[in-house]
Specification:
Rossmann fold; binds NADPH dihydro-nicotinamide-adenine-dinucleotide phosphate; seven-stranded parallel β-sheet; alpha/beta; 48% helix
Amino acid sequence: MSLAGKIAIVTGGSRGIGRGICIALAKAGADVVTCYAHGADGANETVALCKEYGVRAEAVQADVAKNDDVARMVSYVKETYGSIDIFVNNAGITKDNLLMKMTEDDFDAVLDTNLKGAFLCIRHIAKIMLKQKSGHIINISSVVGVSGNAGQANYAASKAGMIGLTKSVAKELGSRGITCNAVAPGFIETDMTAKLPEDIIAQMKNSIPMKSLGQVEDVANLVAFLASEEARYITGQVICVDGGMAV
Ligand code: NDP
């Protein structure tokens, strides 16, 4: 499987799963541009790790919830690199709380970054991919978008929304050679999950058929496959990487 000569954008590559995806795409030969909201240092570290594979890589500041930022990032990549072959919607946040304690601001913030951000990015990227008549879009959803989760009404709604977005985009753009799939990670070891209390982590582990947490690479390897020509006939799918959690 080779992505040599392909140009990829991965949102939220300053750490965690986004960083892992950038590295997996670079390892397969793609040039990678990533964006971050605040974490410039982390994003620059990701860039350095990608460059070890001999590809071009860079990081740009862009808040995916802001249309002007997204427009600037997408036109910069198109002008500098000539095409955009792979787009990974990875940037995401959580603001967990029980429904009765969840504020309207926390609901809006999570929906704005996770769902509206994905929509804004796809709308700008699709213009380019439609002209190219090719492209792979991969949305990082979550198993909680499939099954829901107490304390995560905002997050689960945003991730379920990404699944509807994925299937609609797949139907709308499929005839133009563009695929759109969702990857739904389970419980992956990153900063996002590190902030959970020990007892919750132990409880989660116990509920996973494989009895262990996933690693960033487990998600990143699937994304690299979905970004490749080997996956050309797969679209509109939601693939869980969760050790059997959602079964
Ligand atoms: P992290 O919190 O470790 O990283 C999130 C990344 O998103 C950071 O690079 C962050 O950049 C970026 N980001 C956040 N908000 C914005 C924004 N508005 N604009 C641009 N970039 C932004 O998360 P994970 O690596 O754990 O998660 C990555 C994705 O995978 C998320 O979509 C998450 O919902 C999903 N996921 C994770 C699971 C897990 O178990 N870890 C399980 C299921 C899904 P910055 O440095 O600027 O903050």
